[in-house]
Amino acid sequence: MIAIIDYRAGNLKSVKKAFDFLGVDSKVVASPDELIDVDKLVLPGVGAFGAALEKLHQLNFFQFVQQWIQQDKPFLGICLGMQLLMEGSAESPGAHGLGFIQGKCLRFDRGKVPQIGWNQIIIKGKSNLLHGIEDRTYFYFLHSYFVQPDDESCISATAEYGVNYPAILKQGNVYAVQFHPEKSSDAGLKLLKNWIEKC
Asked: Model pTM?
């Protein structure tokens, strides 16, 4: 069973619809009490870094998610869900992220912000998440900030938007994507299927 965390900052319907299309059991959860018998965890997200963290704390998800990823259980962060894995963000100075990956989030300082639309990913190394997905495949992005990990070995793919930035991270069983696979047509569905079956 896949759980999609509802902390009032995610594109939940589209994510759930994508899993339904793939024929996978998933559920949207609004409380840690609903996470019994869950095998995989998805943290989606649209919105501001600090506000999202505040909601995670209010709904008692922060510590649960932190423990889940520290235990190296299957996890997928989407968009803001990827940024929340970092220690902090320039968007919300003083707000402390999940801290699983050392580093921070920075704001684009070139071009139109936010970046909205299709962009190519540049694959940096072999990853089960990218099985059958070619280099320079297009995915749908919508964000104003990007992650900057201290250790670049966790970067599986990058994208370019005035600067070369991480598009996919992997550390153990924790995966994260800056784009929205649930809005990325066949390529996005393929990536989600890979996460379910191969990661």
From this structure: 0.96
Contact 5, 44 (CB under 8 A): yes
Active site residue 154: no
Whole-angstrom CA distances from 49 to 91, 96, 115 are: 7, 9, 17
Catalytic residue from among 79, 105, 154, 199: 79
- Given a contact cutoff of 8 angstroms between Cβ atoms, the answer to whether 16 and 28 are in contact is yes
Question: What residues contact 163, with CB distance under 8 A and at least 6 apart?
Answer: 108, 109, 110, 146
Provide the edge-to-edge strand list for the sheet that holds 88-89.
88-89, 103-107, 145-149
Q: Residue 74 to residues 19, 60, 126, 134, 141: CA-CA distances in angstroms?
A: 16, 20, 18, 24, 23
| pLDDT 10s digits, 143-179 | 999 999 999 999 999 999 999 999 999 999 999 999 9
- What the chain holds in terms of domains, given with CATH numbers, is 2-198 (3.40.50.880)
57 is catalytic: no
